[in-house]
Amino acid sequence: MSSIAAVGENYQKFNPRAYLQNNYMPPRADFSSDDFVVPWKLRCLAEAFGTGEIHGHTVIDIGSGPTIYQILSSPDHFEEIIMTDFLEVNREVLRRWLQAEPGSFDWSPYIKHACILEGKGEHWKDKERKLRDKVKHVLPIDIHQLKPLGSALTEPADALVSTFCLEAASPNYESFQKALENVTTLLKPGGHFLMIGALEESFYLAGEAKLLVVPVTEEDVKEAFTRCGYKICDFRTYVMPSSLKIGVDDVRGIFFVHAQKKTQA
Ligand SMILES: Nc1ncnc2c1ncn2[C@@H]1O[C@@H](CSCCNC[C@@H]2Cc3ccc([N+](=O)[O-])cc3CN2)[C@@H](O)[C@H]1O
């Protein structure tokens, strides 16, 4: 079995509820200070979209997982949002939230914080409703395929968003770089890519699953984007405080990159 196939096989044990518990509930979901990881992530995304540079008809979220926080600041800038994931269990968790099914994960603290960061005085229920209206598809994706969405995509998107996916789905740096090339085919020339990911992480837990991660440094990420034909517009790093190192992974830090796909080779 190839190392990529082994990664896919291991993901069959991924437990979305455990993953949400580990990363999106206290202590990591602490909104009391801008110095905590979740406010930092939301601020990176809100400020990037707040520049007004990133807009168009369609944005694709690559490897959404069971989370929606990563698209909270995008609805005002796009007509359509496409969410994607490798696992049906995650796509089902997303569909249930999108349909406001009882028992879905409570993203309201995140939605409220995004409204505060954007400073438009938008009520969080309005943002929530707008988000549900604009997510038009929840599609299967495999970043290791030349065409990650298969034949589901008719034309490239105006922007891509991806959080904690490529490094957690790639067995080594070479496949991380190749996966970036594959997903870049989904983006129009001149389009923008916002990525958040783990720095120097080698594993994380999601219930019974222990998933291996290719450890990447800031330089590794910058090099991958540059070699893939992007201009890096902004790059930020967050150092995980010891209080947030809670045993669910060995992540050392978080990166945020805003990159623009060059218009000619
Ligand atoms: N071949 C594939 N193609 C596309 N997606 C794929 C593929 N294989 C798996 N996937 C998909 O990718 C996965 C995305 S979740 C990956 C989690 N990454 C690690 C975790 C994340 C995290 C979150 C928050 C914080 N924090 O401090 O706030 C820290 C950390 C660090 N640890 C999962 O949805 C899977 O379904």
Automatic annotation (TrEMBL):
MF annotations from Gene Ontology: phenylethanolamine N-methyltransferase activity
The alphabetized list of GO BP terms reads: methylation
UniProt keyword list? Methyltransferase, S-adenosyl-L-methionine, Transferase
Please give the GO cellular component terms listed in this UniProt entry: cytosol
Stretches of the chain forming a coiled coil according to its record:
none
Q: Which residues bind S-adenosyl-L-methionine?
A: 19, 24, 63-64, 69, 85, 90
Alphabetical list of Pfam families matching this protein:
NNMT_PNMT_TEMT
PROSITE patterns, alphabetically? SAM_MT_NNMT_PNMT_TEMT
What NCBIfam families does the record point to? GntF_guanitoxin
**What is the protein name stated in its UniProt record?**
Phenylethanolamine N-methyltransferase
Q: What species was this sequence derived from?
A: Microcaecilia unicolor
Name the lineage: Eukaryota, Metazoa, Chordata, Craniata, Vertebrata
